[in-house]
């Protein structure tokens, strides 16, 4: 399977005083606000690190669901938080925190499957930073 997805960003002005927008092909983001404040402080809008966190948590969780299904398990609930750490101009860490409810799976098998999902998730493979994973099975 091969496909291409598209997003675009527009920026006007300087890095600190300027502002921009970001949009996705699906229009889930449609001229979403992007600014110095939304990236480095607190403001209404989004930022690249938040978008990476969203992409990584979504990709990892979907990959885990596929692996669990292949092993004969039907997840009732998988919830992943991705925390992206930006430090001195570099993304230094992405911490994935998974909580799952998967009937019939052992703690060990859930841990192993989650680790495999982290390793083979396309977004994990793309990122050049440390990625940690904490797993809780309910």
TrEMBL record:
Gene Ontology BP, a term: response to oxidative stress
Pfam families: OsmC (PF02566)
GO MF terms held by the record: peroxidase activity
Superkingdom in the source lineage: Bacteria
Alphabetized SUPFAM superfamilies for the sequence: OsmC-like
Signal peptide region: none
Official protein name in the record: OsmC family peroxiredoxin
Species this protein is from: Flavobacterium resistens
């Amino acid at each position: 399977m091969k496909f291409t997805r598209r997003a675009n960003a527009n920026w006007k002005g300087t890095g600190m005083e300027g502002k921009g927008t970001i949009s996705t092909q699906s229009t889930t983001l449609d001229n979403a606000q992007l600014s110095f404040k939304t990236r480095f402080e607190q403001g209404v809008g989004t930022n690249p690190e938040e978008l990476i966190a969203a992409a990584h948590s979504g990709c990892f969780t979907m990959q885990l669901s596929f692996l669990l299904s292949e092993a004969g398990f039907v997840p009732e609930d998988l919830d992943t938080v991705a925390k992206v750490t930006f430090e001195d101009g570099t993304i230094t860490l992405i911490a994935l925190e998974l909580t799952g409810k998967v009937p019939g799976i052992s703690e060990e098998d859930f841990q192993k499957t989650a680790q495999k999902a982290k390793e083979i998730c396309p977004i994990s493979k793309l990122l050049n930073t440390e990625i940690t994973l904490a797993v809780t099975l309910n």
